[in-house]
Structures are given as C-alpha cells and as structure tokens.
Design a protein that fits this description.
The complex is a heterodimer of chains A (114) and B (116). Chain A has 114 residues and is mainly β. Chain A has a single domain, classed as Immunoglobulins (Immunoglobulin-like, Sandwich), CATH 2.60.40.10. Chain A is built from no helices and eleven strands. In chain A, a hairpin with an 8-residue loop joins strand 9 and strand 10 (104-105). The chains are: A mainly beta (114), B mainly beta (116).
C-alpha cells in the first residue's frame, strides 16, 4: 500500500541553525501539506502546496519557514533559523484531490531544538 | 473559523467494553469530518470520514461514527474494544473545496487506555 515517508525520524539541532525536513508523498498525489504537533498540544496546520505554489498557510508559517518540491518526488520544509519553540513533531501529508480532502499522513519527524 | 472540540482528554475502558469518543465541531457550512488514530511513534491513520449522505459511517478496525448536524457532533464508537485500540484519537474538520489544497483543523485528541 502506498504511504507517505518522512526523513529523518528525529532531528536534533542547535538554536539558530537551519533544518530541512524531507517528505516523499504518495506518488500520484497532487496536494501536499505540513502540520506540526508540539508535545501535548493539537496537531496544527502549517502550509499546503499545490501546483508548485503555496495554497494556504497559517500564522505559524512565517518568514522562517519555506517549502519546496525540488523534484518529482520530494517535498521539503525548511526552517531557516530554528528557535526553541520550533521543537515539535512535524507531519507531512498528501492528498490526491480536494474532492474528498482525504489526507494521508507520514510518520512524522521529531525536531528537537537545543 | 472552524474549530473542533474533544471534551475528553483521557478515557479508560476495559477490553470488550463499548467505546464512544466525543467530537463537536464549529463550522459555518457542511464540513468534511474525519477521525484519525495515532499509535505511539506512528503517524496519523484515517479511521473514517464523512462528507455527505448516510450520517452513520463505517470505518476500519470496526469503528463507526455518526454525524448529527443538530448537535454539531461526530462521535466515534466501537461496540467492543480490543487492547490494540489503545492510542490517541483525533477528530478533524475540513472545508469542502476543489482546486486548492485545504487545511484540516484538529481537535486536541483523546487518549484511550484499554484495561485487560
């Protein structure tokens, strides 16, 4: 069964460093998403991406964040200068369409900022 | 703005007992409603979804949920819980849309513990 994959599973970084979280969505999907979950809190939407551009973004997704689909398979989230409060689990998701809006989630990358 | 409330942070049931997890939503139009499950160290797995039609929807692993528009609720049920159902359960709402990717709004989750 096709699935969304994410690497790495755990990333530890120093405050102020740049990190890139990688995702491989399901191959025929067209819509891509990043969510995050701070420990003990809700899963929060960050950004959605379609047709090589951002469709929607939340208030969390400020200038420190960027997304890219560098090739036909990867979808990346970059945090330019990490802060302590960026420590969270980051989930990538993809969907084939928005007709039923069913999003398939990856296993997540746990980001720890020291 | 859409929102989702899961009033129960933690529920404990005995194996074999029935289960109901509550979810209330706030949304101005007919929403898409979802239940996801997250096991430790795992991603979010879709249990079931509601878009339209029959208000009682069946999902995987023996789960079902009922959409009640008058109560703005979408409660998840299972008649007999198995130990493997212990996990965190998230209700989510998404707007109907076509042509652009749209976000899901999640509730805060209900942690289910199953006693032997």
């Amino acid at each position: 069964e096709p699935e969304v994959t994410q690497t790495p599973s755990h990333q530890v970084t120093q405050m102020g460093q740049e990190v890139i979280l990688r995702c491989v969505p399901i191959s025929n999907h067209l819509y891509f998403y990043w969510y995050r979950q701070i420990l003990g809190q809700k899963v929060e939407f960050l950004v959605s991406f379609y047709n090589n551009e951002i469709s929607e973004k939340s208030e969390i997704f400020d200038d420190q964040f960027s997304v890219e689909r560098p090739d036909g398979s990867n979808f990346t989230l970059k945090i330019r200068s990490t802060k302590l409060e960026d420590s969270a689990m980051y989930f990538c998701a993809s969907s084939l369409s928005t007709w039923d809006n069913e999003q398939f989630f990856g296993p997540g990358t746990r980001l720890t900022v020291l | 703005a859409q929102s989702v409330t899961q009033p129960d942070i933690h529920i404990t049931v005995s194996e074999g007992a029935s289960l109901e997890l509550r979810c209330n939503y706030s949304y101005g139009a007919t929403p898409y409603l979802f239940w996801y499950v997250q096991s430790p160290g795992q991603g979010l797995q879709l249990l079931l979804k509601y878009f339209s039609g029959d208000t009682l929807v069946q999902g995987i692993k023996g789960f079902e949920a009922e959409f009640k528009r008058s109560q703005s609720s979408f409660n998840l049920r299972k008649p007999s819980v198995h130990w493997s159902d212990a996990a965190e359960y998230f209700c989510a709402v998404g707007p109907f849309s076509s042509g652009s990717a749209r976000q899901l709004t999640f509730g805060s989750g209900t942690q289910l513990t199953v006693l032997p």
